[in-house]
Amino acid sequence: MKKIGLFYGTYTGVTGTVAEKIAQELGTEHVDLHNISEGGEQMEDYEFLIVGTSTWSIGELQEDWDAFMPKLQNMSFQGKTVALFGTGDQVGYPDTFLDGMGMLYETFQFRGAQFVGFWPTTGYDFTSPLPLFDHDHFVGLAIDEDNQSDLTDERIKQWCALIRPAFGL
Ligand SMILES: Cc1cc2nc3c(=O)[nH]c(=O)nc-3n(C[C@H](O)[C@H](O)[C@H](O)COP(=O)(O)O)c2cc1C
Questions:
Q1: What is the rounded radius of gyration, in angstroms, for the C-alpha atoms of the chain?
Q2: 99: exposed, middle or buried (Cβ count in 10 Å: 0-12, 13-18, 19+)
Q3: pTM of the full structure
Q4: Sheet harboring 132-134: ordered strands across?
Q5: Please, what are the domains in the chain?
Q6: S-S: 100 plus which of 43, 53, 127, 169, CB 3.0-4.6 Å?
Q7: Quick one: CA torsion of 92, 139, 121, 141, rounded to 10 degrees?
């Protein structure tokens, strides 16, 4: 069984906690957790990737991802399967809700990644176009711990069920 590399960036810990919950839901024996602040060079070693970020400073990528961007832009994700997740605040920042996740989507897509885990926009209220795959779907799992923390665990559970087959689980 091939392991999944889960790489996340977090500032106050929210995205880190979501990353741990995803790993638990998929089975921690299947997932290697990496905080991008400690480097992401091993990303190219995995065929299966889960990638998560928060959004800060009104539409900016979490700062550790931002710092890693020059290296990311030199990597190839051809033949790799990628699932994205993002955390944000749709009430405080509806125009830039989950923009960081949208930016990672563009970066990985340009470098050849195949995506799984598009997530329905039903139940969210926001105007940002960046995290959208199509009219009805985000590019990945959308988590809003600031306003909808009661929905987080169930969203993680359902999303993990959605991505499992693509990761051979
Ligand atoms: C100053 C500030 C700016 C923020 N900007 C955005 C934003 O533009 N879009 C968004 O979705 N969330 C925004 N957020 C909310 C955070 O992304 C959210 O709380 C997230 O869960 C934090 O995750 P982290 O602790 O893993 O970094 C902002 C929060 C603060 C305090």
A1: 14
A2: buried
A3: 0.98
A4: 119-120, 137-138, 132-134
A5: 4-167 (3.40.50.360)
A6: 53
A7: -80
Pairing of the two strands 81-87 and 31-35: unpaired
pLDDT per residue rounded down to tens, the chain (169 residues): 689 999 999 999 999 999 999 999 999 999 999 999 999 999 999 999 999 999 999 999 999 999 999 999 999 999 999 999 999 999 999 999 999 999 999 999 999 999 999 999 999 999 999 999 999 999 999 999 999 999 999 999 999 999 999 999 9
| Rounded Cα–Cα distance for residues 53 and 60 (Å) | 10
- Give the residue from 102, 140, 110 showing the smallest Cα distance to 6: 140
Cα(98) to ligand 1 centroid in Å equals: 8
135 alpha carbon – ligand 1 mean position (Å): 23
* Closest C-alpha among 62, 58, 3 to residue 33: 3
* Structure letter (DSSP) for residue 62: P
Closest Cα to atom 25 of ligand 1: 12
In this structure, the residues whose C-beta lies within 6 A of any atom of ligand 1 are: 10-15, 54-59, 62, 87-89, 93, 96-99, 145-146
List of residues 6+ apart from 32 with CB closer than 8 A: 3, 4, 5, 6, 46
